[in-house]
Hints:
The chain has helices spanning 3-12, 53-63, 72-86, 104-114, 124-130, 137-145, 171-181, and strands spanning 24-29, 36-41, 44-49, 68-69, 122-123, 158-159. By secondary structure, the protein is α/β, with parallel strands linked by helices. It folds into 2 domains: 3-86, no CATH class; 104-181, Orthogonal Bundle (Arc Repressor Mutant, subunit A). The strands form 2 sheets. A 4-stranded mixed beta sheet has the order 3-2-1-4, sandwiched between helices. Strands 5-6 form a two-stranded parallel sheet. Helix 4 crosses helix 6 (137-145). The termini are far apart.
Amino acid sequence: MSGDLDALLRVTSPGYRGHGPPDVAFGTTASPVGTLVLAVTARGVVACSYEDEHAVFERVSRAVGTFIGPDPRRLDPVRRELDAYFAGRLRTFTTSVDMQLATAFARTVLSMVSAVPYGTTTTYQAVAERIGRPRALRAVGNALTANPVCVIVPCHRAVEDDGPGPYAGGTAAKQNLLRLEGAQAA
């Protein structure tokens, strides 16, 4: 955990003493597509984000509203799975996911892209049609871009008809993930 995050925890979580299991485990991990901010609740990974640590911390503290701090015992299994994925040894994440930071519509969209197999893609249009909202392309795109559990919930596998489309980690990160998976066009 970075020194900045440790200082943030002391200021925003008055009960934080740097020890004891928090309700939400919080930390970062380095990846080939950038630093990922992780948050894990008792239900699963609630955040795997490219955003700044402070932004993720604030969103998690507002939505979950519990004691947040470091807990390697809960973060390390997620880090190991991410490392295995980036090394090409893992195709399906087994870690549980907690989607409470996503809207109901986004959960529907993200559930749909979770079924897209490793190494393949689908289009925003196909996702919109599968959820019964064929004209909701912008809403589908927004839900994918706002995915709170990037990489683990593979929103990068949904592409626009004419290219990769936007991604929370940037277009280059999305292209790198698709290349890592050897993804074929939808």
